[in-house]
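Predict both folds.
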Amino acid sequence: MTSPQNDPAPQPPQGHTHSHGPAAPVSRHLRKVIAAVLIPFATAVVVGLIAFWPGGVPDHERTGVGFDRQTQDGKVVQVVNVDCADVNAAQVPPTGDTSTPSGREAVNEQEGECAKATIEVTSGDDKGRRFVEVVQPDAPRQLKEGQGVVVAYAPDAPRDLQYSVIDVNRKIPMAMLAGIFALAVVLVGRMRGVMALVALAVSFAVLTLFILPAILQGSNPLVVAVIGASAIMLAALYMCHGVTARTSVAVIGTLISLLLIGLLGSLFIGWAGLSGNTDDNTGLIKGLYPDIDMSGLLLAGIIIGSLGVLDDVTVTQTSAVWELHQADPEMGWKGLYRAGIRIGRDHIASVVNTLVLAYAGAALPLLLLFSIAQSSVGTVANSELVAEEIVRTLVGSIGLVASVPVTTVLAALVVSADRAGPGGAQAATAAPARTGRGRRRKTG
């Protein structure tokens, strides 16, 4: 009587160890082989984090330009409509010529009603101080009473000109949107969603506490990006999908693909002569920290940007091969690979299109400027601004495409190598197929 009661108990853990589907356990020998690869890699990542860990963002004297300005919170306490001619000092061209942009702007500043806004500083040492901001009728950002704003502080300017409005305060709607996102993830994903949010927090921590300060301190951007991306990958995959052989195969596939992206990115960034210094923001970074390797920073961005999509592809392919094996335990690694790669081809088509459209959407204003200038496709592609995005997109896409066969063959080899023997995948997958009574008769 004791044997029938105790025998079926181990069945559920074998078939339903993880919430993302049945995961057949692999043998102890195979786990040792995977550990022999991943433990040295994880150790190297930890050593790299310790060796390159920064002591914080290095100090510098603020330039007062762009993002390097001192800012405080403010609030619009009053808005009064006034005649633009009474508050603007712009001079209309003597001829009244409005054919040039400067002429049209000067005329507009003398005509119509302007908004004269009184702003109160609500944070910092000057909390409670008020100043006046004049808003032109054609300005893209209009102010309204009670609105929260971000103000820039210029300590070297005359007192009446030390503060100016530079943006709208969006903290509340952004926080609300983040809360809705977190709630949706938890409601749908449940515990897996909670772990995904924790992994996201870890990713941001690695980015803000390690990668960015280390680069600013002069460390090689490529080395820092590889170490940081590896740490993010290990934390995200194992926290979200569990410490299993299936996850470990996805980690190895992601690592191989990241190495390929790094090699291709380094080759084509150098070959195409991309400097990585193409706009005001990168120019400001280079001015503040001349020792930063801007082309290395570009390559680091490609690696980090590709990591998120790579995780999705490698985990999906590994899970597909595992499920195929459990559906047909007798299938060899070649059959598993052929079936898995058919699934991967659909994934490749959608992911590559997603990447290209994402980069095209981000560069849409730039593409519009080229369209206005009636530039040819060759001229546009040859521009460094666009060439950077092309290299970023194509190198990342090549890595994504390569990750599918690499991860699929790794998963097929691992899961098929464990088909025989006690505790192997075949026993684990075959057991749930029998009825409880039949299994007791066979093993009892």
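Second protein follows, with its predicted structure tokens after the sequence.
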Amino acid sequence: MTTPEKQSPGLVARLFDIRSVIGALLGIYGILLTLAGLFPSAFGNETHSSPSNNVVDMSVGTSANLWVGLVMLAIALMFGGWALARPAVVGDKVD
């Protein structure tokens, strides 16, 4: 019978580092918003005719989903790069 190999605590710490979690969530939401901006008819029925004085209707006709999705993807890449550039240290004393 073989014993399962123990995973190093560094791998688990890097996987569940808060920067990785936030980057993954922003990436998922960014992908969804970018797709909603690129294909608006696939994600909802466009029944708005023109923007009115209502604050919610002011974005009608713009590609707000696309731009916000792209910004979220850029921030997710920054979080991922940060997590890779300065990985979490476990078990060692940090000065």
